[in-house]
Design goal:
The chain is mainly α. The protein has helices at residues 14-54, 58-68. Belongs to the cytochrome c oxidase subunit 6c family.
Length: 75
């Protein structure tokens, strides 16, 4: 066994240093998750809504629902 002195652990400022590292990591992960959601979900959803409303006829849909008896006030 060697009788050399062990280095003392650094305790002063340990929380601040670890917190700074974790905050940077959390910031990078949140930016990445936001960008992923925007491109994977948001843009696809916008495109699907645009495609749906491009050739949607609300009056035709209303007439079909009226004929089916869904509305009580519109005969």
């Amino acid at each position: 066994m060697s009788s050399g002195a062990l280095a003392k652990p650094q305790m002063r400022g340990l929380l601040a240093r670890r917190l700074r590292i974790h905050m940077v990591g959390a910031f990078i992960l949140s930016i990445g998750a936001g960008a992923y959601y925007k491109f994977a979900v948001g843009d696809q959803r916008k495109k699907a809504y645009a495609d749906f409303y491009r050739n949607y006829d609300s009056m035709k849909d209303f007439e079909e629902m009226r004929k089916a008896g869904i509305f009580q006030s519109a005969k």
